[in-house]
Structure formats: structure tokens, C-alpha cells
Amino acid sequence: MLKKIVICLLAILPVSIMAQNASELKFGHVNTQELIMQMSQMKEAQTQLEALSKQYEDEIVKMNEELQKKYQDFQALKDVDEAIMKTRQDELMALNQRVELVKQTAQEQIQKKQETLVAPIIELVKKAIAEVGQENGYLYIFDTSVPATVYQSPKSEDVTEKLKKKLNITATPKATAPAAKK
User: What is the arrangement of strands in the sheet containing 140-143, beginning at the earlier edge strand?
Assistant: First the structure.
């Protein structure tokens, strides 16, 4: 009989300890995309990306204008030697290939620049999340910008304001989306 009581107590004791500890568990959540878009570093990155994108756009427009003019000149050719027609046609094809190459290069360079500018911002946010989590005793902080969060309990605390304080974000205007890839 005593042995049964001891076994029951040993079985119940861990459950009651776990139940007591469960009430002390803290969960938090934050939308990292919104947080990042409010950071001054991200606004500066967007400005740099827009400037780079504009440079490439201007160059592509200039090249397209040149291609259009050469094409019109080619169409205006009437009674010329076949070798001259072939030379002009080859020039048009080469210029068109250069335009396409510049477009492809522009897209790659803008994407590479975006990755270079955004990576340190993301690391800064990750570090701040880890610090806020440790300082406030959170077991987990979930990112609600990722659609993997299926359910969010009202007991989960929104840690956005703590992170804004940690990251020195003062204003909270609605930011625009990052520069789209072209």
C-alpha cells in the first residue's frame, strides 16, 4: 500500500511541477517585416537601391532610343547593296543583345546590392530579438510575418515596442515595400 502511494506521488509530482512551470512560460511575437521597414537603415538601403535602379533605367532607356533610331534608319534603307543591309542588320542584332545583357546585369547587380545592404539589418534585428528574449525571459518569440504561425494565443506578448526601443526606432510611419527586382 505504501509502495503504491509512493509510486502515485512520483507520477503526480512531475506533472504538477510541469503545470506550475507552464504557467510561467512566456511567448512573444513580432512582425519582423514591419519592424525592418520602419528602421532608418532600411530606408537608407531603399534610397541606395532606388538610385542604382535609376542609373540602370536611364542607361537602358538611352540604349533603347539608340536601337530604335538605328532600326528606323535600317527601315529607311532602299536601294543599297545586300552587304550593307547585312552589316546594318548585324549591328541591330548586336545592339539588341547588348540592351538585353545590360538589363540582365542590372537585375543581378540590384539584387546583389539589396542582399549586401539588407543582410546587416536582418542580423541587427535578430540580435535585438535575442536580447529582448533573454532580458524578458521569453521561451520563444515568433515572427508573425512568416505564414507558418497557425495560431497565436492572446497570452503571447507583442514584443514590437520592446524591439523598437532596442533598435532606437522612434517614428512608426507605414513604410513602402522594398525595391522590386526588375
Answer: 140-143, 27-30, 157-158
75 part of a folded domain:
yes
User: How many Cβ atoms from other residues are within 10 Å of residue 114's Cβ?
Assistant: 19
Question: Are residues 124 and 41 in contact, defined by beta-carbon separation less than 8 angstroms?
Answer: yes
- The H or E element spanning position 29 is strand 27-30
pLDDT in tens, 66-99: 999 999 988 888 888 889 889 999 999 999 999 9
Name the 3-class secondary structure at 14: helix
Q: What are the angstrom distances between the C-alpha of 6 and each of 1, 9, 21, 50, 105?
A: 9, 5, 23, 71, 74
Residue 22 lies in a domain: no
List C-alpha distances in Å: 103 to 54, 112, 139: 12, 14, 47
Q: SS3 of 157, please?
A: strand
Which residue positions in the chain have pLDDT lower than 50? 2, 5-6, 8-9, 13, 15-20, 175-182
pTM reported for the whole predicted model: 0.68
Q: Under DSSP, is residue 165 helix (H, G, I), strand (E, B) or coil?
A: helix
Q: Which domain holds residue 64?
A: 39-166
52 part of a folded domain: yes
